Fold each of these.
Amino acid sequence: MSESATVFKNLIAGEWTESVSGKTFANINPADTRDVVGQFQASVVADAQAAIQAASSAFAQWRRTPVTARARIVNKAADWLESHADTFAQELTREEGKPLAQSRDEILRSAQVLRFYAVEAQSFTGETFPSDDPEQHVYTQREPLGVVTVITPWNFPISIPARKIAPALMAGNTVIFKPSSDAPLIGYRLAEAFAQAGIPAGVLNFITGRASDIGAAITESPVVRAISFTGSTAAGEHIHRSVPITTRTQMELGGKNPLIVMDDADLDRAVDLAVKGGLSLSGQACTGTSRILVMESVRETFTAKLVERVKSLKIGSGVTPGMDLGPLANRKQLESVLGYVASGKEQSTHLIGGEQLTGEGFEHGYYVTPAVFSDVPESARIYREEIFGPVLAITSVTGYDDAIAKANDTEYGLSAAIATSNPRYMHRFADEIEAGTVKINRTTTGNVINAPFGGLKRSSTSTFRESGRAGLEFYTQIKTVYRGL
Ligand code: NAD
């Protein structure tokens, strides 16, 4: 199969080009590792430099392109995604593993994000300020930064790039986009959508390859004025420390997201929040629920209900209709999750799951059954470290104060949820939880496209938010103008 796999090229300076390395790497289907989805360019520093050069040369003209003309291109790219949603969803599921319906939703949502920024950027302006001098007009104007780099992970391989690239382009910047090597095809489709929409050469450049080969080149160049990165805390913090001081960064990183279950909560609903928040996408969402802090008085009932629900979940290839969980995204993920399951068994009570599936239909994929642990102490690895897999850790709490203290006892602060019917707890939780996304009777996962998104503590650099209007703020700089007569 691998010999006949399509070779996908980089997009540099408006041309689909091969890497000067002459090498490619394989994009593998995690549901069936015999299936090579495509070959992608194993780019090297010279390719990265060509992309930076192209983006730099294109900037002057793009910055002067009227915002309505930019919007026409961005909307056309959205049309392309929408009209190809079914085929692209098949491709996304094939390379990443998530159920087909979720892939389709992600593509349509990405188109919506493009349309949102095509409109929002048209009314994104500066401010005017009162001045004592009647002959002086004081105002701010926003302008693009220049060349920006967008680096993204494999778990939402089109919606995360879309929410970074659309505001960057609409604000007048030129872009270098590097997708994850585990799901580069849908990123390629996004670049293709812009190319066929008529984006001028060099305004959006798409480059694939290993972070160890091109990572430094696309982040450390002083020509790159900003980096929007989503991925692991280790990689994000490394990049943040390595770039010139003049480079603006936006780092959306890991999480260890808690769900608090109070004794006044509707327990069936709380189970729903735990299962949807913790196990959809096979637990591979940055905002996925990972720790469940449940009141001792309802712990037994809640846990029994949760285990029953987990038993009923269906696991299988994302292309099979009705599956709740697909495979994990790659071998590293599989090994890491199995390692956490083993440590969970040593450090807490194992209730269900965590086995690799190897029987018929599963033997060539990275399948693991969802796992639930209880009596998880705060010192356990599965309590403290981001697992990024279908593993739920239950810890009991004695009251609200104990719950909030435990919820905040983490280096991360991406998302957090509480299940309660008590307005007092709702209010206190929103006030006291150390997380950038706060959910009350909602899953830790999921965010709307028109509101800011980002984490606190080590889940984000806490510089700029992305999504919504905040996305445009990141990609623009402010000048204060004093105009006299
Ligand atoms: P990763 O950090 O391994 O890789 C993310 C991207 O960064 C990839 O494209 C990778 O090639 C690139 N990269 C890695 N090191 C680099 C370097 N030194 N220079 C330049 N590029 C580099 O993460 P992953 O395994 O793809 O994704 C999983 C992680 O992403 C999890 O930790 C998860 O929590 C996080 N994530 C966070 C959010 C969020 O919004 N906060 C969303 C999704 C995923």
Amino acid sequence: MSTRIDVVTLFPEMIREACRWGIPRIAQEKQLLELGLWNPRDYTDDRNRRVDDRPYGGGPGMVMQVQPVHAAIEAARGDGPVIYLSPQGRRFDQSAAKRFARLPHMVLLAGRYEGIDERLIEQDVDEEWSIGDYVLSGGEPAALVWIDAIARLLPGALGDGDSAEQDSFMDGLLDYPHYSRPEVIDGKAVPAVLLGGNHADIERWRHKQSLGRTWERRPDLLEQLQLSDEQKALLEEYIREQHTTDSDKGP
Ligand code: 9D3
């Protein structure tokens, strides 16, 4: 089973080039992911190949026109939903990524300029999604975020060792800190537990770090979770240790 993502964009090279690296590349090579790119400029009826015009009512910028975008969507369309990436959409998150990674097909519509004529959205768009509350200059970076988040979830894309989403305790928590050689850098040693080879102790330490960092940095994420008694105990241990280590730290 594979996923096909078709992107309707005025800058297809942005998508094609960026997907030549990392997981999106590997997923395509393994034929787990198939990318299609459709440029409204190739579908415009306008003799000057225009795809935009001035907004009714005035104001700054330009608006993408219905005709070329509609024709490109029709060319790209398959069985899956047409998804408009826009600041007005629902916020994309990991649970959305998981949901869309199960689909065999979707069309992503990336806008430019001030946006797309609303009648196109009413007519052709099934869902509208944003990637977060900041202003991009177009939908292409959002499409790349979408493709990357989905590609790494496709079964077989990551290689067995890395199939992360299984180590269940991490779900909804921030990552624990990572260390590699050398053992000491500028007097800073790797935490001793990681050198001891006691895998139960290591897992416990990592779990505690994940809980503690989430508590410190993203309390909003913790509120979404129902911690087990064991997790509550680990977090309390982290908080206790953090208080003693912080205040005992000399200058
Ligand atoms: C300065 C223009 N803005 C006036 C309030 C409106 C606006 C139009 C077009 C803002 C951004 C964009 C382009 N953005 C996207 O296409 C986009 C986006 C984003 O900007 N943030 C988060 N997610 C997304 S998904 C697509």
